[in-house]
Amino acid sequence: MGAPETQSYERLQSSEIGEQPLSFDTIEPMHSSWVVQKFGGTSLGSFAPKIVEDIVIELDLLLLKIEWWSFVPRPVDLQRRMELQIGKIFPRWIEADHILAAQREVDCPSLQESLIESIQHECRVVMSILGAARLLSEMSPACVGRVVSAGEKLSCHHMVALLRQQGHKAEVVDASNLGISLRDQDFHNGLRDTVAKKLAYKVNHVDGIPVLTGYFGFSATSTALELVGRGYTDLCASLVASGLSAINLQIWKEVDGVFSADPRHIPDARLLHSLSIAELRDLTFLGSEVVHSTAVDVAESQNLTIYVRNVVSPKAQGTLITPKPPNPKARLTAITTRSSIAVLTFHCRPRDSTCAIYSYISEALQRWELSADIMSTNKTSISLAVSLPDDFSHSRTESFELRIRLVIEDLTPHFVGIALATKAAIISVVCRPAGIRDCVMATMLRTLNQKTMRVYMTMNGVSDISAGCVIEEKHVREAAEAIHYELFQVPGIVTPPSGMD
Question: Where along the sequence do coiled-coil regions lie (predicted)?
Answer without folding.
Answer: none
